[in-house]
Design a protein that fits this description.
The protein is α/β, with parallel strands linked by helices and 283 residues long. It contains 13 helices and 5 strands. The strands form 2 sheets. It has a 3-stranded parallel β-sheet with strand order 1-2-3, covered by helices on one side. A two-stranded antiparallel ribbon has the order 4-5. Strand 1, helix 4 and strand 2 form a beta-alpha-beta unit. Helix 9 crosses helix 12 and helix 11 crosses helix 12. The two termini are 41 Å apart. The C terminus is likely disordered.
């Protein structure tokens, strides 16, 4: 997104938060407790499977992966599909590939299922992986060649080790927003955008300049969208109706706009790629 020279200069010279307050957040409450059960069920079905296709959001190619998934697969041929590539900033794609290869993943395809971009590469790669495997030689996901697909629900790690990883997963819609809190997620999104000098939100919402104060940003968003509400305030002369910005509605719009790609492409795992791992949860 193009911004005026004045906005860019002011944004570049601003001091942004170097870290996000993570204390006191109960990550375990965000993620359902049946994940371990789902992983065991998948493991029991592996004997029917010749090749595993793992699908994740391309905006979190590293944080989005379940660390227990690799050991669960055993020796099965394995393809990682990173979808929603149109929403991800892939400037550091080579680093992403190198990082994944270091984790034992050599077969990775970036796709955009909405526009059928690179999706047609999946079947040929799966066919090649199965054909080159010394253990698995059955047919599988289309008619030529014959391929069958066994779909499973998404399975996250039973325990999320980092609050920041949890927030990244939440931004990409892996949990219900209200469990984390829309305003908390909006604040983390603002922190991430500013930290990576991604100021598309300034132009999208017609703000005067980039800002690191989520309350001020949400107030501006609420006023621009007409998202206000009447609130009764007790004064010395009785109740008075005051018009206030609807911060939750503004936060929801901020999140929806990000998820639709209207703030520009974003890579939420830049900190991991650049050697700045996310903080651990409090014990």
């Amino acid at each position: 997104m193009r911004l005026s020279a004045g906005v860019l200069c002011r944004a570049a010279g601003a001091a942004w938060r170097e870290n996000f307050p993570l204390h006191g957040r109960d990550v375990a409450r965000w993620f359902p407790g049946h994940m371990a059960k789902g992983l065991k069920k998948m493991q029991s079905c592996l004997k029917l499977v010749d090749c595993v296709i793992e699908v994740h959001d391309a905006r979190i190619p590293l944080s989005g992966r379940n660390p227990l998934f690799q050991e669960t697969l055993g020796l099965k041929p394995h393809l990682l599909v990173l979808n929603k590539m149109d929403l991800a900033d892939l400037t550091e794609q080579q680093k992403i590939m190198q990082h994944l290869e270091g984790e034992g993943l050599k077969n990775v395809i970036f796709t955009n299922c909405v526009k059928d971009e690179n999706v047609k590469q999946v079947i040929p790669v799966v066919t090649e992986l199965i054909g080159s495997s010394c253990r698995y030689h059955r047919g599988e996901v289309c008619e030529q060649p014959l391929v069958f697909l066994l779909d499973t629900p998404g399975v996250l790690a039973p325990r999320i080790e980092s609050v920041e990883t949890g927030l990244k997963l939440a931004l990409c819609g892996t949990v219900l927003d209200h469990l984390v809190g829309e305003e908390t997620m909006a604040d983390y999104l603002l922190y991430t955008l500013n930290r990576h000098r991604l100021f598309g939100y300034v132009q999208h919402y017609g703000l005067g300049a980039a800002c690191d104060d989520i309350e001020r940003v949400l107030k501006s968003v609420a006023v621009k969208l007409g998202k206000t509400q009447k609130v009764k305030v007790l004064t010395g002369t009785g109740d008075v109706n005051v018009i206030q910005p609807n911060y939750p509605e503004a936060a929801r719009d901020f999140l929806r706009t990000f998820r639709r790609g209207q703030l520009g492409p974003v890579m939420l795992d830049l900190d991991v790629l650049r050697g700045h791992p996310t903080a651990k949860t409090d014990p």
